[in-house]
Amino acid sequence: MFVGQKVADSAVDRTPTAPVSDVTHLTGTVAVSANSILDALPYGVVCFDVLENGDVVIAGANPQAKSLFDIQSTQLLPVSLARVWSEGDLEKLSEVIRLAHSRRQPQSLEWIKTRDSHEHYLTSHLKPVFKDAGDGYQVLCTIEDHTAEKLAEKNIMHHAFHDALTGQPNRVLFRNKLEETVINGQRSDEPFGCAVLVVNIDRFQQINESFGHSAGDRFLISMASTLRRCIGSSDILARLSGDEFAILVPDMHEIDSVIETSDRIHEAMRQPYDLDGNEVFTSVSIGVASTISSATHPEDLIRDADFAMHRAKLAGKARTEVYRRDSHQVARSQFHLETELRRAVEREELQLFYQPIIDVRTSELRGFEALTRWRHKDHGMVSPVEFIQLAEETGIIVPLGRWAFEAACTCLKHWEMEVGKDKLVPVNVNVSGVQFARDNVADIVEAALEKYNLPGHLLRVELTESSIMANPERISESLNKIRALGVKVALDDFGTGYSSLNYLHQFPIDIIKIDRVFINQLERGNTQHKILDMIGMLARSLGHEVVAEGLEDTDHIAMVTEMGFAFAQGFYYSAPVSSFEASDMVRGNLPWS
Ligand code: C2E
Ligand code: MG
Ligand code: MG
After folding, report:
1. Mutation probe of ligand 1 site: the residue of 430, 494, 557 with most atoms within 8 A of C-beta
2. 512 CA to middle of ligand 3, Å?
3. How far, in Å, CA of 23 to CA of 55, rounded?
4. Are 449 and 486 contacting, i.e. CB atoms less than 8 angstroms apart?
5. pLDDT score of 478 more than 60
């Protein structure tokens, strides 16, 4: 780009009022002065002198270079470089100028200069040139300003590593920072510990649905600044996904300090957030994993913190859970069990057992309660106590519940073929509250009765008081439909839940089943005895049948009979039995009489 050593040398403006140089350069047929070429250049050109004492002076500069070095147009040159510029990469530049000068070799340099509090990213090529007068060398330096490209590049990088909404680091950057922290920590001789907190907003979906997505966005932005206020200056906050943030505590000495951070977050969340004039209250669930409690691989730390966060949600939200290896193992085995149970329903490894319900005065068979068993290939018969809760938590209860009605009807049909319609007794099927909430139980019952061509009175539905209380309106509506099919409804486990006699008349039920825990504690004249007496009277006045569960001995039978309860169920008569044994009972072979 330079037009020759001599030209460049003489063409650099040596004084503010220098006359246009008489040195010209011919481009084609038009004669152009070297000075006007230099003025027109899009980059700075400076001529540096290096004095004997090593000081660097600016001997000449074109306008671009002058403005970069803040040299006034009235300023006389030469001027010491240190006088016009005293900060940033000055030393670096001076050094390279001296090098080019002493070694007589071209040099290149990338450097940064701050002007008006903006950083300028510059590239320079330095070339020693022979002075006109022959008395030594000067250094000719070009200065290209790459600030615009650099900023564009920075911008692109920022977007690749930051969340556009909150401006916080994204998952990629968070992971990189975490990796860097772990690697540096492991290399250092000092004891090292770091922690990851995963913070998930509870019920964020509701905010989005109630106030719209732009309000949800504003909420997330404010959430980010709330979190920033709660964390330490060296901690890193990132937004991992929709309503999930993560915090890296890079130098953790003890887990307590991390818990304090999470406490500060919970405390801050107690303040209402003003969303378009509406006070919104939310909470967060936080999971913590540290290099003490978890593996040290960055990906594992994030996964474990996430796992702990889900535990916090399950435990009721608005809390912090610290990851523990053993709880993960429990979850893994639960996951295994869940997969197995799902398969068990599909492959029909489940089976109904039947426990007879007896008329206590006549000892006649009056019905059966169907109780699910799981024939597990390794564990044998698994009790429903082991898997009903898991089935409810995972939703498997829905197909399981449907299957139970089918299986009970199939069995009734078999008995019908064996003993005829007249001798058939009803079968009670247990229905979980979760199934009532997720499935249309009335439709399922109706479809099963239709499919097997059975009258409604041969099926009964058992549900617990607590499952009714979870959603009284919806369940009552469903129960009314079920009763309209001629199917009776039994309130199961009475005496263990709310046990409020007030509710008894409000629910659409036909039968009350007294829980065996109640029967177990029964002694003549004790509180249980008195309460049970009252329940019996109330039930009779409301027209409900009462079944006493868990009768194990003759004492129980005697007390229950005295109190006028008509029906009983318990090991005294029979434990739950297979459908084959049950059909024997239907045929009239009753082991208890
Ligand atoms: P539940 O409905 O109250 O069933 C009575 C439970 O008491 C049965 O336990 C039965 O075996 C047991 N039992 C009966 N008589 C006696 C006795 O004299 N002494 C003692 N100690 N126990 C007695 P099981 O079969 O283990 O069932 C437990 C619970 O699991 C049932 O309680 C029921 O709530 C639930 N369940 C069973 N099958 C199903 C099902 O298909 N669906 C749903 N949702 N729940 C079911
Ligand atoms: Mg039951
Ligand atoms: Mg019961």
Report:
1. 430
2. 10
3. 29
4. no
5. yes
Beta-carbon neighbour count of residue 455 at 10 Å? 13
Q: How far apart are CA 489 and CA 491, in angstroms?
A: 7
Q: What is the pTM of this model?
A: 0.55
Is pLDDT at 28 greater than 60 in this prediction?
A: no
Q: Report how far apart, in Å, the C-alpha atoms of 12 and of each of 65, 74, 93, 503 are.
A: 11, 16, 19, 101
What are the b/e assignments for 571-590, b being 16+ CB within 10 Å? Answer: ebbbebbebebbbebbeeeb
Question: Among candidates 67, 71, 84, 74, which has minimal Cα distance to 17?
Answer: 74
For every residue of 479-545, DSSP letters joined together read HHHHHHTT-EEEEEEETTS---HHHHTTS--SEEEE-HHHHHT--TTSHHHHHHHHHHHHHHHHT-E
pLDDT in tens, 292-333: 777 678 888 998 899 899 888 888 889 999 988 776 666 666
Q: Does any ligand 1 atom lie closer than 6 A to the CB of residue 570?
A: yes
Instruction: Output the CA 200–ligand 2 centroid distance in Å.
Output: 38
Taking only the tens place, the pLDDT of each residue in 161-191 is 899 999 999 999 999 999 999 888 888 877 7
Q: Is the CB of 373 under 6 A from ligand 1?
A: no
Residue 517 or residue 329, greater confidence: 517
